[in-house]
Design a protein that fits this description.
The chain contains five helices and seven strands; from the N terminus they run αβββββββαααα. With 170 residues, the chain is an alpha+beta fold. The N and C termini lie far apart (52 Å).
Length: 170
């Protein structure tokens, strides 16, 4: 990671490219929040197709400037784009962001919206696990639900089959 940052800085200096913060476009109407939380105070509104300047990212939130308003919106409310006006700048920034190529598609593995520090500080939450387990259904109920929805059962050979219990305790 350190080498790729150094390489990016060198490429930018060599090509004489100066760029501002990343830009983007609002994908939908949304509320600008004072802080990156769903229950934070509303600071304004974001309209679909508004052009925005992305100032910061925190978890699943982006701090943006839209017109004269600044605030936080959910990450998925903004289509991110580069601010470079030349093809050279777009190419360099595309390499840096992993969005190179004609489709501008990024393939990632991991948990979107959480940084390394947040993942390291995560703690087991027994109450949430109990809540999740309370939503489980029996195999029979699952099959009935699928059948009611018009889904057909099929065998998945790549999943291990549960072993029948022998009934003896050791």
């Amino acid at each position: 990671m350190k080498h790729s940052n150094t390489l990016l800085a060198a490429l930018l200096m060599l090509s004489g490219i100066a760029f501002a913060a990343e830009t983007g476009t609002a994908l939908k109407n949304d509320t600008l929040r004072k802080e990156p939380y769903a229950d934070a105070k509303a600071m304004g509104t974001l309209k679909r197709n508004d052009k925005v300047q992305i100032l910061a990212k925190k978890g699943a939130w982006l701090q943006i400037k839209a017109g004269k308003s600044t605030g936080w919106v959910r990450l998925l409310s903004v289509k991110r784009g580069t601010s470079g006006s030349s093809n050279e700048a777009a190419g360099v920034l595309g390499l840096a962001s992993g969005r190179s190529g004609t489709g501008q598609v990024v393939s990632t593995t991991g948990v979107r919206g959480l940084n390394e520090e947040e993942l390291k500080s995560a703690k087991f939450n027994e109450e949430e696990m109990k809540h999740l387990e309370a939503n489980t259904v029996s195999e029979a109920d699952g099959k009935k639900f699928a059948a009611d929805g018009g889904l057909k059962a099929r065998k998945l050979d790549y999943l291990p089959q549960p072993q029948p219990s022998t009934g003896s305790a050791q």
